[in-house]
Amino acid sequence: SPGVPRVCGMPLKYVSLVTLAVQNAALSIVMHYSRVSTPPALSYSPATAVLLNELLKGSISFIIALSRVREVVETPWHRKSLWGIVCSLPYPWTAPFWSLCGDIFSPDCWKLSIPAILYVVQNSLQFVAISNLPVASFQVTYQMKILTTAAFSVALLRKKLSSTKWLSLFFLAIGVGIVQIQTSSSSHTGPKHTTVGSAHDYHVHVMNPLKGFGAVTAACFTSGLAGVYFEMVLKNSRADLWVRNVQLSLFSLVPALLPVLYNSKPSNSQGFFVDLFRNFGGWAWATVAIQVFGGLVTAIVIKYSDNIMKGFATSLSIILSFLASVALFDFSITPSFVIGASTVLSATWIYNQPPGKEPTVLKGQSGK
Ligand code: C5P
Q: Where exactly are the transmembrane stretches of this chain (predicted)?
């Protein structure tokens, strides 16, 4: 339909889902490498990365929101509120700027504080998880967020999932598990490595899988809850997506700043900014850049699709990263990959069948 936003002629909904799948595959590899390729004493601070992520995402969202502010409607002076008068200050950039500030600090902006805190916790847990688990194990366990997201969508958004959709979600999780188990077992076989870097890189960093699994499980809950909460706030009001994103980043700044301030040690300090950016090299910047980009795409996906579709996109990213390994690192396609990938693709197909057209064997109540 003409109202649907498009990129290069394709609906933004699908472009954003595919982009998210590629971004997800890239993030887990780059983030893992950025953490394990150096001994802990020489590694960068995750707290700095989380803070930079929010600062950059918030600034980009602010610029996009500013470019979208409509002309302030001309109302006669005597009918304007004090805020309206401030918005009409005589500089070309002032009116949109102040009008945007008015939107950002709207009375309902506090609603974003909940997903903001949850996302900061999640982004920090992600660093703990990925530093203590191999990429493949991290990815497979993180898929549990498909189920937590569905559960929170039903509880908070009152989405109705037919038994067919629930079944396809379980098959999705199982399919991802099969792909991953095969990926992890093949990653132990000598040169067939799933991640960048030499085997030597992995001996300098000691991993604690129990800690990693604990962190990833907690992150699945915050991911589901924060995503669904953000979707609820976004879809229950007319406020612009980018204004909501700025509000989200603003509320994230406080919890993101706390660990940075807590970690700064006055004893051997060389100044706040030097401490902040210690060991912050190219891989750390690449991690932050991919995260910022992912945050922006996630917001678009939540707006134009929903959190459950986001789960499908990220599962496809696992197949994508496997196929990339086949092309780049000489991986061979095994029967378990074919079974796992077919399960994921069938689950995606079944989930997306319109109600009434679902396979009869699985048919339950009406769809979402
Ligand atoms: O794993 P999951 O899809 O829940 O991760 C969502 C990521 O997207 C988080 O890193 C979060 O900070 C980011 N995000 C964002 N802006 C939004 C929604 C999510 O930056 N509006």
A: 166-183, 212-230, 242-262, 282-304, 311-329
d(CA 84, ligand 1 centre) in Å: 34
Q: Is 340 in the pocket of ligand 1 (CB under 6 A)?
A: no
Q: What is the pLDDT of residues 101-113, one digit of tens each?
A: 989 999 999 999 9
Q: Which amino acid is at 147?
A: L
The ligand 1 atom nearest the CA atom of 244: 21
Q: Where are the alpha helices (DSSP H) in the chain?
A: 12-36, 46-68, 82-87, 94-104, 113-132, 135-142, 145-157, 163-187, 209-235, 241-263, 272-276, 282-304, 307-329, 335-351
Mutate to test the pocket of ligand 1, among 19, 53, 111, 119 (most ligand atoms within 8 A of CB): 119
Q: What is the pLDDT of residues 44-78, one digit of tens each?
A: 999 999 999 999 999 999 988 888 875 444 555 56
CA torsion angle 289 293 299 303 (round to 10): 180
